[in-house]
Amino acid sequence: MPDAPRGEDSAVNREKRTAIFRTLQARLPSPTTELEFRTPFELLIAVILSAQATDVGVNKATAQLYPVARTPESILALGVDGLKRYIRSIGLFNSKAENIIKTCRILIEKHNGEVPRSRKELEALPGVGRKTANVILNTAFGEPTIAVDTHIFRVSNRTGLAKGKTPLEVEKRLLRLTPDEFKKNAHHWLILHGRYVCKARKPLCGECPIIECCEYTKKELA
């Protein structure tokens, strides 16, 4: 990984990062994903479906799917074509259906139908990459991981919280620089901030609660 930018670990920046997370924590003490789920398996399926799709769209699809099939066994019984009927509104539904069916089969054959709790085993599942594994580890099992999606990548670079050229660089810096007390919830605070305030095309700087700590040089306050 490239060396950290000069001054990144200075006391001033540590104070700034702490202030950012304390502010976000005060506004939302118990953040969580906007994906709707009841079990780790339901979350796993929802996160696989969420690639290049909105949480709103995924929730609409799973609201139809889960009353019919919400376990590895019951989804596997649907088969690829049967599953497609419920997720057809989701982008890339053909490949996602195939990956989900393969994942269900692996969960049954190798994990007694349970979602594994290790990164290595999660990333061995079809349709599951590092980001998805991080979401499962954090949201389902409470691990202090930080999944870097487009929102978190943008917020981290734009604010100066943790700069990096790739999602992995940003993830590693966030894990190193985020105070331990905030690591468990950092993913959710940052993704929600990016989704609703620090938007890609037109950030709502005038409504931003962390504007005094933000290093973005093109703030639009109007």
Question: What features would you describe in this structure?
Answer:
The chain has helices at 11-27, 40-50, 55-65, 72-87, 93-111, 119-123, 130-140, 150-159, 167-177, 180-196. With 222 residues, it is mostly helical. The protein has 2 domains: 11-29 and 154-213, Helix-hairpin-Helix base-excision DNA repair enzymes (C-terminal) (Endonuclease Iii, domain 2, Orthogonal Bundle), CATH 1.10.1670; 40-140, Hypothetical protein, domain 2 (Endonuclease III, domain 1). Helix 2 packs antiparallel against helix 7 and helix 8 (150-159) crosses helix 10 (180-196). The chain is elongated and about 55 Å long. The model is unreliable at 1-6 (pLDDT under 50).
Give the topology, please.
Blueprint: H1 11-27, H2 40-50, H3 55-65, H4 72-87, H5 93-111, H6 119-123, H7 130-140, H8 150-159, H9 167-177, H10 180-196
Short description:
By secondary structure, this protein is an all-alpha fold. The protein is built from ten helices and no strands. Helix 1 crosses helix 10, helix 4 runs antiparallel to helix 5 and helix 8 packs across helix 10.
